[in-house]
Amino acid sequence: MSKIKCRSCGKELFYNSITDIPTFPFCSKRCKLTDLGSWFNEERCIEGPATNDQLEDNNE
Predict the structure, then answer these.
(1) Residue 36, φ and ψ in degrees, nearest 5
(2) pTM score > 0.85 for this model?
Protein backbone atom coordinates (compact mmCIF):
# COMPACT_ATOMS: atom_id res chain seq x y z
CA MET A 1 0.00 0.00 0.00
CA SER A 2 1.28 3.47 -0.91
CA LYS A 3 0.52 6.84 0.58
CA ILE A 4 0.65 10.47 -0.51
CA LYS A 5 -0.58 13.74 0.94
CA CYS A 6 -3.38 15.70 -0.67
CA ARG A 7 -1.81 18.60 -2.55
CA SER A 8 -4.42 20.98 -1.22
CA CYS A 9 -5.12 20.14 2.44
CA GLY A 10 -2.29 17.72 3.31
CA LYS A 11 -4.53 14.81 4.34
CA GLU A 12 -2.76 11.44 4.01
CA LEU A 13 -4.22 9.16 1.34
CA PHE A 14 -3.57 5.41 1.23
CA TYR A 15 -4.02 3.46 -1.99
CA ASN A 16 -3.05 0.31 -3.86
CA SER A 17 -3.59 1.89 -7.27
CA ILE A 18 -4.24 5.52 -8.19
CA THR A 19 -7.59 4.37 -9.56
CA ASP A 20 -8.59 3.78 -5.90
CA ILE A 21 -8.78 7.59 -5.50
CA PRO A 22 -11.01 9.15 -8.18
CA THR A 23 -9.71 12.66 -7.41
CA PHE A 24 -5.99 11.67 -7.29
CA PRO A 25 -3.74 13.44 -6.19
CA PHE A 26 -6.41 15.24 -4.14
CA CYS A 27 -8.52 13.74 -1.34
CA SER A 28 -11.81 15.18 -2.58
CA LYS A 29 -13.50 17.10 -5.34
CA ARG A 30 -13.49 20.16 -3.06
CA CYS A 31 -9.68 20.09 -2.74
CA LYS A 32 -9.36 19.58 -6.48
CA LEU A 33 -11.53 22.64 -7.17
CA THR A 34 -9.70 24.70 -4.53
CA ASP A 35 -6.43 23.99 -6.34
CA LEU A 36 -7.97 24.90 -9.69
CA GLY A 37 -9.22 28.18 -8.20
CA SER A 38 -5.66 28.97 -7.08
CA TRP A 39 -4.49 28.64 -10.70
CA PHE A 40 -7.37 30.83 -11.98
CA ASN A 41 -6.59 33.51 -9.37
CA GLU A 42 -2.92 33.35 -10.41
CA GLU A 43 -1.86 32.37 -6.88
CA ARG A 44 -0.03 29.53 -8.62
CA CYS A 45 1.77 29.85 -11.91
CA ILE A 46 4.53 28.46 -14.04
CA GLU A 47 7.14 31.19 -14.17
CA GLY A 48 8.37 30.39 -17.66
CA PRO A 49 10.32 27.86 -19.66
CA ALA A 50 13.31 26.27 -17.95
CA THR A 51 16.68 27.61 -19.02
CA ASN A 52 19.69 25.44 -19.81
CA ASP A 53 21.33 26.60 -16.54
CA GLN A 54 18.32 25.45 -14.49
CA LEU A 55 18.28 22.07 -16.24
CA GLU A 56 21.99 21.58 -15.59
CA ASP A 57 21.55 22.49 -11.91
CA ASN A 58 18.80 19.85 -11.55
CA ASN A 59 20.98 17.15 -13.12
CA GLU A 60 23.82 17.63 -10.64
Answers:
(1) -60, -40
(2) no
The CATH superfamily assigned to 2-47 is Erythroid Transcription Factor GATA-1, subunit A (3.30.50.10)
Residues 6+ apart with CB under 8 A from 20: none
The ranges assigned to domains in the chain are 2-47
> pLDDT tens digit string along 14-28?
999 999 999 999 999
Q: For the chain, list residues with pLDDT below 70.
A: 58-60
